[in-house]
Specification:
458 residues; mainly alpha; Fumarase C, Chain A, domain 2; 3 domains
């Protein structure tokens, strides 16, 4: 039977159901409410700017009128959004509904009501929509997404420094390889994330307010002597804090959106890679997970503490990347001067970024549960003396000993190695005693190159 109202239990999307509480920061910014809020803001700022343009028919508004208009934006509530939706039931046009709502709100105010036909003056719906979408993305990026990414970077930077000198056996192709440190492995990811963050933060959010097909046709028909391009630039950049795009069709072409969504996809990819690595390190016993009273890891195996946070992160980042990739590939494509395929797709910006945020939340919870198991790390290293074949043959090369690589290959490949065997091999080499002593003192745990310094520097 149909549900009487939407709840967390019957929501179609888990973003509005099971995980709704984790996305409260994004909801007012990227929902339909958020879109309506920004539409009102754009319409108001355009209207106020028109009053300052010097048109004889529209004298400059009083400070009281400006304050009243901007209060509609500052105090915009869910009931206001619902009122706009109610108007839309008649207009069947969401932007026109915003225009009518504003006119209703200024009705009875003599100064404003007299000028009401300058609301939405010379605008096409996309002048309002594209600026609103840019404002939504600006708020979501600056107020929610980048702060979350910064928390992950800060957490992992602290891990890099804390574990900078803790040696760890590397595994290339899944096989034992030259040791590193736990901190250096985390630092590798931090460096990638910082670069990815810079790309996200560096995307210029573009907007246009140039009419039905991007040529200011209607604007010039009313005021042919006015510099409409400069005026629009001032509204976009000065009033709204966005970057002006002078060349568009009816819609802003969304190339900046593609760039932004691609940049978020890079973050998803990096964090999927990291989540999988941590999952593996937990499996090897390098990390243990803090337990919580009452939690169950398996319905039948009481001992289990599963790495579910990292698994959830990986899954949600995957969904996010699929959506972001579609947005990036679809949005810059339009038939001729305009079609509506972008409109319905744009309504999913919040869904795509919601899954990014959900993945980040899961990852942070997983990182907060980790405890390093240094005994497991040390045990693995002590079982892998074969990794010292690399430094030994490299020193042999320096001193011109015959076939160093081949000798070590024959000695170590596929053979169980111990400290005694490796040290016996070194003792028999024709090397300067100081070099022999240095190699004899080396252990798998001490053979980490610059890993500690690199981890501390990130």
């Amino acid at each position: 039977m149909p549900f009487s109202q939407l709840t967390a239990l019957n929501a179609l999307s888990p973003l509005d159901g099971r995980y709704a509480g984790k996305l409260t920061a994004l909801r007012p910014l990227l929902s339909e409410y958020g879109l309506m809020h920004r539409r009102v803001q754009v319409e108001i700022e355009w209207f106020i700017a028109l009053s300052d343009a010097g048109f004889a028919e529209f004298p400059a508004l009083s400070e009281a009128s400006r304050g009243l208009l901007r209060s509609l934006v500052i105090h915009f509530k869910e009931e206001d959004a619902q009122a706009i939706k109610d108007i839309e039931k008649t207009t069947n046009h969401d932007v026109k509904a915003v225009e009518y709502w504003i006119k209703r709100r200024i009705a009875g105010h003599a100064e404003l009501e007299r000028m009401q036909e300058f609301v939405h003056f010379a605008c096409t719906s996309e002048d309002i929509n594209n600026t609103s979408h840019a404002l939504m993305l600006k708020a979501a990026r600056d107020e929610v997404m980048l702060p979350m990414l910064d928390r992950i970077i800060a957490k992992m930077t602290a891990m890099s420094h804390t574990f900078a000198a803790v040696p760890m056996l590397s595994r290339t192709h899944g096989q034992t390889a030259s040791p590193t440190t736990v901190g250096k492995e985390v630092a590798n990811v931090v460096a990638r994330l910082k670069n990815a963050r810079e790309r996200i933060a560096g995307v210029k959010l573009l907007a246009k307010m140039n009419g039905a097909v991007g040529n200011y046709n209607a604007h010039l028909s009313a005021y042919p002597e006015h510099d409409w391009e400069a005026f629009s630039r001032q509204v976009v950049e000065g009033s709204l804090g966005l970057s002006f795009n002078p060349y568009t069709i009816q819609i802003e072409p969304h190339d900046y959106m593609a760039e932004l969504f691609d940049a978020f996809t890079r973050v998803d990819t990096i964090l999927i890679d990291w989540a999988r690595d941590v999952w593996g390190y937990i499996s090897l016993g390098y990390f243990k997970q803090k337990t919580k009273a009452g939690e169950v890891g398996s319905s039948t195996m009481p001992h289990k503490v599963n790495p579910i946070d990292f698994e959830n992160a990986e899954g949600n980042f995957g969904i996010a990347s699929a959506l972001l990739t579609h947005l990036a590939q679809k949005l810059p494509v339009s038939r001729w001067q305009r079609d509506l395929t972008d409109s319905t797709v744009l309504r999913n910006m919040g869904v795509a970024l919601g899954y990014v945020l959900l993945g980040c939340d899961s990852l942070m919870r997983g990182l907060d549960k980790l405890e390093l198991n240094e005994s497991a790390l040390a045990s693995d290293l002590d079982s892998a003396w074969e990794v010292l074949a690399e430094p030994i043959q490299t020193v042999m090369r320096r001193y011109g000993l015959p076939e160093p690589y081949e000798q070590l290959k024959a000695f170590t490949r596929g053979q169980p190695m111990t400290a005694e065997l490796m040290r016996g091999f070194v003792a028999a080499l024709d090397l300067p005693q100081a070099e022999k002593d240095r190699l004899l003192a080396m252990t798998p745990g001490s053979y980490t190159g610059l890993a500690t310094a690199l981890a501390q520097r990130v």
